[in-house]
Amino acid sequence: MKKQEYAIVDIETTGGNATHSRITEIAIIIHDGEKVIDRWETLVNPQKHIPDAIFALTGITNEMVREAPIFDLISDQVFELLKDRVFVAHNVNFDYSFVRHELERAGLKWTAKKLCTVRAARKIKPGLPSYSLGRLCSSLDIDLENRHRAGGDADATAILLSRLLEWDHEKVMDVMIKKTSQEQQLPPNLPKEDFDQLPDKPGVYYFYDEHKKVVYIGKAVNLKKRVSSHFGGHKITPQRQHFLRDIYAITYEVCGTELMALLLECSEIKQLWPIHNKALKRFEPKFGLFEYEARNGYRYLAIGKLAKNQNCLETFDSIYRGINLLQELAKQFEIDQRFCKYGSMSDGVFTTHNDTAALPEIEVHNDTIQVAIDFYLNSRPSFAIIDKGRTTDERSCIWVENGHFFGMGYLDSDLVITDPSQVKEYVTPCKSNQYIMQLIFSHAQKYPRTVHIQKRDDNFVAFE
C-alpha cells in the first residue's frame, strides 16, 4: 500500500481573496509522513501591481516579480506536485482557494483532501496562547526564518506537520483528512466542539471574533444545518474569506418557532449591530410621523427623516408610506393641508405660502389634530400570538400593542389565558419596526388560530 504523502503549501499574494488577487510566490514541500522528500519554490509574476501594504508585509516588490514566470507557465508543475497528495497549509482554505482558482484559470481541474495545521494543532496541542504560525512556532521551539515569505513559512509548516504526526497518538489527523470530514469545512479558528453542540432545532445563532465580540447573528429552522451551510461550497469572495476568518466561537438560543427566531434575530441585530450583518440593517425605519406646535400656537403634523433615538408617532421605511398616511388622516379629519408638512421636520413660523384663505380657529384646529392622533393610535390592533414552546411544558407568546411589537417570551403550557395583560407579564420588551410587523401580520394571516386579538370590549378572542 502506497504511503500517504503530503504537499505542504504556502503562498504570498497581492491581496486577501482569490477573485481579485493573484499569487506572487509559491512554495511546495513534499512530505512522506516521516521526512521531507522534495522541495520547490518560485516567485510568480501576478500580472498586476503589488500594493504597498503587501510589499511592507512580504518584502516582495514589483521589480522582483517582473521577470518571474506567470502562473500559467508553472501550472503543470504545480499540478503534478499536488496530484494525489494531501494539501497541507496553515489556514488551509486560504491557500487552497488561491491555488485551485489559479489552476482553474490555467484550464486544470483539481481538488484534493485538505489538512489545516491550525485545526490539527488545536486538537493535538490544545491550550496554547495562539495558533498563528509565528506564535505557534515560538511555543513549540520551531525555527521560523523568512517570515511572510512562501519558502520560510512552508519550511516551518513542514516541521510543524512532522511534530504533529509524531504527537498524534489518537490519529485525529487521519480523521481530519478524510474527504468527507466536515471539520475541514469549518473556519480555521472555530473549535469543532462549538459546532457539534448545535441542535437540530429552530433558533438564533451568534458568531464571535477573537475578542469575544458578536460579528454575525442569524436565525434558523434547523440550527446545525443552517450554520453548516455558511461553511460549505467553494466561494472565494473577499467578504466570505474575511467572514470565515473572523469566526472564533458560536453560541445559540433555541426558539419555540421560526417566527420567534425571526423576531429574536431582528431584535438582537438592532441591539448589537454585528459587522457582518448587512441584510436586515436596510429595514431600519428612515422616516417618522411627527406632531409639534409652532410659535404661532398651531399644531402641525409632519413627515420627516428620523434621527437616531428620536421619538415620533409612527415610523416608516419609505417617505411615501408616511405621506400616504398623513394625507389619509388629513382627508378623514378635514385637516387644513397648510398644517401638514411633507419631507422635513420644521419648527419655524407658520407661513401661508400666498394662501389668503382664513385660518381655522386655533383651538378647534388643535383639537382636531389631537382627535386624529388619538384615532390613529387607538385604531391599531392589540393582540397576542400563542404557539409552540421550546419544550412540551411551555408555549411561546408574542404581544402586539396598538399595532407595534411589544415583546416576546414563554409561558407555562398549563396557564389559562383570559386577559391580554397576562401575556404581557411573560414577554421581554423589544423595539418594533415595520419589517417586524410585516413578519407578525404575515404569520397572523397564515396561522390565524395562533392569534388572539383584544376587542374594544376587552374580550380576548380568536383573531379574525
Automatic annotation (TrEMBL):
<dbReference type="GO" id="GO:0003677">
    <property type="term" value="F:DNA binding"/>
</dbReference>
<dbReference type="InterPro" id="IPR047296">
    <property type="entry name" value="GIY-YIG_UvrC_Cho"/>
</dbReference>
<dbReference type="InterPro" id="IPR035901">
    <property type="entry name" value="GIY-YIG_endonuc_sf"/>
</dbReference>
<dbReference type="InterPro" id="IPR012337">
    <property type="entry name" value="RNaseH-like_sf"/>
</dbReference>
<dbReference type="InterPro" id="IPR013520">
    <property type="entry name" value="Ribonucl_H"/>
</dbReference>
<dbReference type="GO" id="GO:0005829">
    <property type="term" value="C:cytosol"/>
</dbReference>
<dbReference type="InterPro" id="IPR006054">
    <property type="entry name" value="DnaQ"/>
</dbReference>
<comment type="subunit">
    <text>DNA polymerase III contains a core (composed of alpha, epsilon and theta chains) that associates with a tau subunit. This core dimerizes to form the POLIII' complex. PolIII' associates with the gamma complex (composed of gamma, delta, delta', psi and chi chains) and with the beta chain to form the complete DNA polymerase III complex.</text>
</comment>
<protein>
    <submittedName>
        <fullName>DNA polymerase III subunit epsilon</fullName>
    </submittedName>
</protein>
<dbReference type="GO" id="GO:0008408">
    <property type="term" value="F:3'-5' exonuclease activity"/>
</dbReference>
<comment type="function">
    <text>DNA polymerase III is a complex, multichain enzyme responsible for most of the replicative synthesis in bacteria. The epsilon subunit contain the editing function and is a proofreading 3'-5' exonuclease.</text>
</comment>
<dbReference type="Pfam" id="PF00929">
    <property type="entry name" value="RNase_T"/>
</dbReference>
<dbReference type="GO" id="GO:0045004">
    <property type="term" value="P:DNA replication proofreading"/>
</dbReference>
<dbReference type="InterPro" id="IPR036397">
    <property type="entry name" value="RNaseH_sf"/>
</dbReference>
<dbReference type="GO" id="GO:0006289">
    <property type="term" value="P:nucleotide-excision repair"/>
</dbReference>
<dbReference type="InterPro" id="IPR000305">
    <property type="entry name" value="GIY-YIG_endonuc"/>
</dbReference>
<dbReference type="Pfam" id="PF01541">
    <property type="entry name" value="GIY-YIG"/>
</dbReference>
<dbReference type="GO" id="GO:0003887">
    <property type="term" value="F:DNA-directed DNA polymerase activity"/>
</dbReference>
<feature type="domain" description="GIY-YIG">
    <location>
        <begin position="200"/>
        <end position="278"/>
    </location>
</feature>
